[in-house]
Amino acid sequence: MGTPVVLPSAPSMGKLFAQAALTARGRGGSLPDTHLTRVAVEVDPEQVADYAEVCRFRFGDTLPPTFPHVLTFPLQVALMADRSFPLALPGLVHVRNRVDVVRPVSVSEKLDLEVWADRFAPHRSGATVDLVASVRSRGDEVWRGRSTYLARGAYAPAGPVPDVPDLEIGDVAQAAVWRVPDDAGRRYAKVSGDVNPIHLSGLTAKAFGFKRAIAHGMWVKARALAALGGRLPGSYSMDVSFRKPLFLPSTVTLSTGQRDGGWDLAVRGAKAGTDHVLATVRPL
Amino acid sequence: MTRKAAIVGGNRIPFARSNKKYARASNQDMLTATIDGLVARHGLAGEQVGEVVAGAVLKHARDFNLTREAVLGSQLSPSTPAYDVQQACGTGLEAAVLVANKIALGQIESGIAGGTDTTSDAPLAVNDDLRKVLIAANNAKTLPDRLKLLGRIRPGQLVPDQPRNVEPRTGLSMGEHAAQTAKVWEISRESQDELAVASHHNLAAAYDRGFFDDLVTPFLSLTRDDNLRPDSSLEKLATLKPVFGKGEGATMTAANSTPLTDGASAVLLGSDEWAAEHNLPVWAHLVDAQTAAVDYVHGGEGLLMAPAYAMPVMLARNGLTLQDFDLYEIHEAFASTVLSTMKAWEDPGFCKEKLGLDAPLGPIDRSKLNVNGSSLAAGHPFAATGGRIVASLAKMLHELGPGKRGLISICAAGGQGVVAILES
Amino acid sequence: MSDWYRDFANSGIGSTITKQLGLPRPVRLRRYSPGQPLLDGPALVGSAGEGRLRAEVESVLKEDGVTVLSPVTADGEKGAKVAAVVLDATGVTTPADLAAAHDFLAPAVKRLGTNGRVVVLGEVPGEAPSPALAAARQALDGLVRSLAKELRAGATANLVYVPAGAEASVPGPLRFFLSGRSAYVDGQTVTLSAADVPSGDGGSTPLAGKVAVVTGAARGIGASIAEVLGRDGAHVVAVDVPAAGQALAQVANRIGGTALQLDITAPDAAQRLVEHVVQRHGGVDVVVHNAGITRDKLLVNMDAARWNSVLAVNLQAQLDMTQALLDAEGALKPGARIVAVSSQSGIAGNRGQTNYSASKAGVIGMVRSWAPEFASRGATINAVAPGFIVTEMTAKMPFGTREVGARLNSLQQGGLPVDVAEAIAWLAQPASAGVNGQVLRVCGQNLLGA
């Protein structure tokens, strides 16, 4: 049976990253069936205000739709940092993220979080694993998240390959130009707790094989969603494919197009037109 | 004869004392939430209204297009046009007048007038000297030149200029100005405290009877104005020390002056036809309005006395006397402002010499004044006050029945004033 | 909905383990979404005795594109799964006739697929002229309730009593019990009455052009009701206390409805509601009394405030608002629908909830008493009694109690707010004109109070 483990508080991210790095070697096997949970989590309005500012959401009674990811992310990391997790956390690349906003969530709601691993599958350049999050309020599921991570060169146990089609978008037109500053990674790290060194500075990014610091994918996603503020269905999913890393600083464009009651979006390099992020927003 | 614009509804968020509940909310956050509440109350999601007009007194440079940005973030159709206005504390009422005039002229069928202000998220200005050095450094061609210029920055210059509630031309705060006027008109401490207590009691009673159920939408867990003290009493207020004015004659305290407040408000206006099409009740029509300004710098008039001058002009144009109204809403920037203004209207000398009238305008029936409370109790987020008053007064007149008249008087910084007539 | 136990039980290894341990294996229920076909497969239709509804049943099914198999042709296709089994048992006149019901159902149910549906139509026992006839008709109730408990994999069984003259009332309820809208309604009995039923089912927007008031709409089940009514085409007036105004505005804007901040226990609340619907909407078609509170304590420890506030919100306000709407000229539109939210606690009682259970039982009394008056106006009034719905109240329970409580029913899982909302939206439809004075439990056939 899936093992529910209830955590009394959010785990410390810095420690987890360190622990994961130290225990990176010699991992393998299958996914743990642990379900990490936290119950009745109260949202800190100050953190929401900071997050909204960095991602350019409006601050009000409604949580920014990507904010629950910030709440569940520490549980993801805790799960992956644990020795029972078959893949080494350092080097995992976030390649896909889907968020289902079942309904808008109020800042004052107490939330139950649940995170588990799913779909450990072979990939053409290694193996992928999904970290799934479910957020409930008073029993109702209000938010779901699915983060797909790629471990290059890793092997997944033989098994069925989940049938997840590549994300494709239709015609989009340029809607905005973003100048993404050098400190974008540090600013998002501060409000999200995602202190992965590849985002923090050129030096720490180099240590992990990147030529410069790269923007958090979830920040790009959040900011793109914020740009649609007021134009979203009440209940929707936003599926994002992270393509080429967005090196800091950069100038990028946001392009949008209305489709199927929702949106297609692309965040691309302003000069070369490199795809950084492709996304779809669809009503649920 | 042009048509009159109808006031069909309103919405505001509860007003919050500075740096409290709304400390992290920007003007745009508050205005958008307020518009969304108005949209929900009137079933306007996805609809386009003729125009949205609003403003803020304390505004960040990034908010140059505040109202349009708020509309884009709201549930209104993104094809709804919008523009910003600013007339200090008169902003909200002036916005309503602008929307009403366009409706009266047939240029639009409906519109939203509003205002928002935050003293918690007020813009900080860079010290002028520092700004000059930074611009020069930015323009410098070589790195050594740049470093040389940056080396000229002194620690004192790093302190930003705080926005202050002072008149640029006199260097006096609004409260100090009001204190001067209170002294001129010999407004007693007791009469000011009485007005303040009445404001709190009236506002609390209005909340209790559900008057604000269709005028206010909670925001950030605040359901009522947090400045409201239902248990306010003359005895308690008498213990407070004066904060404005000096020495023996000082009468103005923190209780009979409005505190710095954050909040936003909006009013929905339309032509009678538009209201009928949308099955919305016509609470009242905006009949007329008048602005005036006084020379408070060199002319010896009080900073907040301009409404006293605007009033006779508007009354004459409409063939009305000051007593021809069923309700009066005089914005309580300070209790003394309300009392000075009323005293001026009763004063034969002032009315003759300053207003050029043969007889004084006369007294106002105090039982008809600010009957559901005003700024002393609710607070006063500068640009949001006009919208609060217009929507509340329109609803009160509607409750009284058809043909009832209401008068609004709002004083504003810069020696200005806006007055208006509503009729149900 | 993430039901980790359900998901686990349906996973490869979980399936093996739960089977070996004999643990329940709840399935993902087939819930309604617009455009969904009535059934995912063919339906088996049969009769016991000389039934009078079979033609009606078959025409409804065919209208919705369902392949109808009769027992004879069905035998020719052994093994093929069916999505529904419908038995016309109106011809049952003696206990001996029940054997025919058994003869048809036994092989038919064997072929029922996942989330299958069994609907039995019978004559009303209370109207039977002889004890033997009444006994035979009443026997169907026991048969269906027990069958519902035997069915697995999300399948449900429900009974519809159709009195003579109420044949035209059948299509709406039949469609409901067959469709995904009734996913969490199991082991229930509904008695129809004769009524003027408009033809057609309204397609995907059966409530188009209707104005619906929903109280307690800011969150939870109320928000879900507002959303489902809005989805079905109604303009929703979402009502809740002023303090919940922010969430209320969001619900209203999400569904293009209207927010009305109103404390329904205020002395002038009913009058304000009437004025609002008359002035702003020219009257109301659907009223859902959903607002409710709990103030739990054992009776001996319960203070007057707890008792009074629960009765005021949950019962008195429903009475006052309904009466005011009846009294005011033009407030209730022709063919109006009132749906009152009751509770399983109002039927079965619940420790610590004497006040709540009293109020919710009172709602049932109210609905039954008012039904004839509503019928005379061509309107209906019904109650919906939710069982273990995973929501506010249940979330306060400890984890273990919740997990067990959620599975003490025939479907082995908790229901969702949307399940309650679907039942209410169905009762609100014009096609439900023949459902009046009924109490429909949305409980997955909970063991409590069954």
Structure description:
The complex is a heterotrimer of chains A (284), B (424) and C (450). Chain A is α+β, with helices and mostly antiparallel strands and 284 residues long. Chain A is 21% helix and 36% strand. Chain A is built from 6 helices and 11 strands. Chain A has helices at 13-22, 45-55, 67-81, 184-192, 202-207, 217-226; strands at residues 3-6, 34-41, 93-101, 111-123, 126-137, 140-152, 173-180, 236-242, 250-259, 262-269, 275-283. In chain A, strands 1-2-4-5-6-3-8-11-10-9-7 form an 11-stranded mixed sheet, covered by helices on one side. In chain A, α1 runs parallel beside α3 (67-81) and α2 packs antiparallel against α4 (184-192). Chain B has 424 residues and is of the alpha+beta class. Chain B has a domain at 174-209 and 287-423: 3-Layer(aba) Sandwich (Peroxisomal Thiolase, Chain A, domain 1), CATH 3.40.47.10. In chain B, α6 (174-184) runs parallel beside α11. Chain B is globular, with a radius of gyration of 22 Å. Chain B starts with a strand and ends with a strand. The mean pLDDT of chain B is 90. Chain C contains 16 helices and 13 strands. The longest helix of chain C is centred in the last third of the chain and has 24 residues, at 304-327. With 450 residues, chain C is of the alpha/beta class. The model of chain C has no long low-confidence stretch (mean pLDDT 86). The chains are: A alpha+beta (284), B alpha+beta (424), C alpha/beta (450). Chains A and B meet through α2 of A and α1 of B. Chain B: Pfam families: Thiolase_C, Thiolase_N.
